[in-house]
Amino acid sequence: xxxxxxxxxxxxxxxxxxxxxxxxxxxxxxxxxxxxxxxxxxxxxxxxxxxxxxxxxxxxxxxxxxxxxxxxxxxxxxxxxxxxxxxxxxxxxxxxxxxxxxxxxxxxxxxxxxxxxxxxxxxxxxxxxxxxxxxxxxxxxxxxxxxxxxxxxxxxxxxxxxxxxxxxxxxxxxxxxxxxxxxxxxxxxxxxxxxxxxxxxxxxxxxxxxxxxxxxxxxxxxxxxxxxxxxxxxxxxxxxxxxxxxxxxxxxxxxxxxxxxxxxxxxxxxxxxxxxxxxxxxxxxxxxxxxxxxxxxxxxxxxxxxxxxxxxxxxxxxxxxxxxxxxxxxxxxxxxxxxxxxxxxxxxxxxxxxxxxxxxxxxxxx
Amino acid sequence: xxxxxxxxxxxxxxxxxxxxxxxxxxxxxxxxxxxxxxxxxxxxxxxxxxxxxxxxxxxxxxxxxxxxxxxxxxxxxxxxxxxxxxxxxxxxxxxxxxxxxxxxxxxxxxxxxxxxxxxxxxxxx
Lengths: 366, 125
Known about the structure:
heterodimer; A: about 375 residues; alpha+beta; Gyrase A, domain 2; Alpha-Beta Plaits; Elongation Factor Tu (Ef-tu), domain 3; 3 domains; six-stranded mixed beta sheet; 19 strands; B: alpha+beta; CATH 2.40.50.100; six-stranded antiparallel beta sheet; three-stranded antiparallel beta sheet; about 20% helix; about 35% strand; globular
């Protein structure tokens, strides 16, 4: 297995920086360079950069591209203007989640870029192809040809703009620019996975390596996947595999608003419509406990009588909020805001309160 | 290179034991604290709690992970290092000076199953 692990174009840089490396989604990835807390705070207060070159880039083009993306994607791409992107999910017919992704409407007509989770690239590509019968489209998994950096934090616009030599203030939230980066085509979008303002840059691997070095030289803090998880979690963002999966639909996870039922059709539409109308058996909630003990994925969530209401999906002692909080998948009847639930942590049971999942007030520049 | 102290006994789950008569002083090894990274919380038992050998008596938490603590010997907890509640980082700073619990052993024979410094050093190579 070890031999099959892939590396990103920045692997030598990570090793040179002394990063703690660990397998993630089939790649050997940096977890931390110094420590998770410092890297987390760099993003919240200044600027950090993540190597997210493991993410997948799937291109869809052709005369039926818009109709096809609307078929496989729960969001509506019809209203998008060229240079705009949108977050949403691909669904199975039963409403389960194939993946969550970003869809970019390119400046060229009939061209879309789908940015998918690294762990799901092959599965997604197969799924997209399988469902393309009858559509006149070209589908290309171009993931190995693209590197990606996420530059995140309140100083991102200023520092990345300076490094790129261009004013990024004109790029609105969930919009992007096509630029030339060291002679290669690059996409710069105002998107991210941290709850802070920031950008994601896609380009050929050589250009990404040069940009990484330039950003570090400009004082940007290299950040690993460790703090990527603490940041996205505090901001209430799901991770595929934990909060979304083939068994966890967007409605269960509380992201039903990304499923556009006013669209003529998409795979999973009937199931999502039913779930929205009738409610689901389970519900993803936030829980805060009044103790420093830390709820972790897999820990049981209990009712007062000791019966099990659900299970923790992600939990931390939040770095930005200094509170122990978690996402948990619980029976719908147990998930009302303000309800008291109990989490078994090692030998003890701690009372907690159901709270809103967006634990941290996000700072997007909209 | 992990620091290992001669004269202590070691468990496979990376606790160290120093014996003082019938009392076992228990902490975690330098190897364990280094693997955990920055420790943010120590889940401690209470004085008077009784544990069997290899039972979990508490846990160390870092930002990323949780690691349970196992008592290498059976007995009753007679002291808890409460200082760790407010300063869990002490374990990172000096895992051998900052013990976690003291246990009044109910069966000193259980110590025979633990490793000496050399055997523990070999086990983490």
